[in-house]
Amino acid sequence: MPKRSLALTNARKDEIIAACQKLYETMSFKEITLKEIGRQTSFTRTSIYNYFETKEEIFLALLQKEYELFAEDIDGLCRQEEALSVDGLSAALAHLLEKHVLMLKLVSMNHFDMEANARLERLVEFKAAYGGFIRSLDRCLQHFCPELGSDGRQRFLYAFLPFVYGLYPYTAVTEKQRQAMMEGGVDYVYMSTYEIAYACIQTLLGGLQ
What is the per-residue pLDDT across 46-64, written as a single tens digit (0 to 9) for each? Predict the structure, then answer.
């Protein structure tokens, strides 16, 4: 594909993804349609099908972008810091999770639907980005916690990654949910993304050392 055509294709994809992200700020996953996304772009709605076949593919591309940005931030942390204590690394990673709340929302709320309704080639692109994210995390652990070894790093990743998938619902509680928990006798104490993530990472790293 000529450079100009590739640049236009990528620009169109980015515009579609940005439109989806904007809608997701005020609308639910179910409410957003290709028609709604098309209204936010500078080209016709039918043109979207040249790049994405379903809205799930657009959301998956948005999540892929978030994983890529998170991986860049992790690699940047390794470049900026020569060494960090367990507390320091826990705080740094917790701050990054707090920064990427969109990623947390997507993996917690809509991940299954996105993967189930995307073409294989789109899913492969996404998995490549997800793999890069995992490798960045692994490099981070090697950099700051070399004493863990390969087994310790794997144990951390297999505990940390499922935790990430379930983090968002604990920090995005509606007033209706608060009232239901109160009336249901649930002793709920609100904690921020940073507070929950810091406590989890510190516990995992402390237990592995």
Answer: 889 999 999 999 999 999 9
